[in-house]
């Protein structure tokens, strides 16, 4: 699965492989991981704005993947899940 001439991010793969046709997640764990990922992206954007960045900084694919793995690891450690 390539999008826009590049490999998908991990969260794009999560969306593609863990959502039903109607857009809902197949299980609550996947939905919580995506929700927490989105929260972390928002937090990072806000911290950049508070640091004085006039323009919002776009996260790279590598940064998005690293953030996804951070969220997933923390989720698994705290909730002892296997995804």
Helix content: 55-70%
Distance between the termini: 20 Å
Low-confidence stretches: none
Helix count?
A: 3
State the total count of DSSP E strands: 0
Oligomer: single chain
Overall average residue pLDDT: 84
| SSE pattern, N- to C-terminal | HHH
Structural class: mainly alpha
Rg on CA atoms, Å: 14 Å
Q: What is the overall shape?
A: globular
- Biggest beta sheet summary: none
Percent of residues in beta strands? under 5%
Q: Number of folding domains?
A: 1
Question: SSE layout and pairings?
Answer:
Blueprint (H helix, E strand, L loop, with lengths): L9 H8 L10 H23 L10 H19 L4
Helix pairs in contact: 2-3
Spell out the key features of this protein.
single chain, 83 residues, mainly alpha, globular
Describe the structure.
The mean pLDDT is 84. The relative contact order is 0.15. The protein is built from three helices and no strands. The longest helix is centred in the middle third of the chain and has 23 residues, at 28-50. The chain is an all-alpha fold. 60% of the residues lie in helices and 0% in strands. It has one domain (10-79). The radius of gyration is 14 Å and the shape is globular. The chain has helices at 10-17, 28-50, 61-79.
Summarize the structure.
With 83 residues, the protein is mainly α.
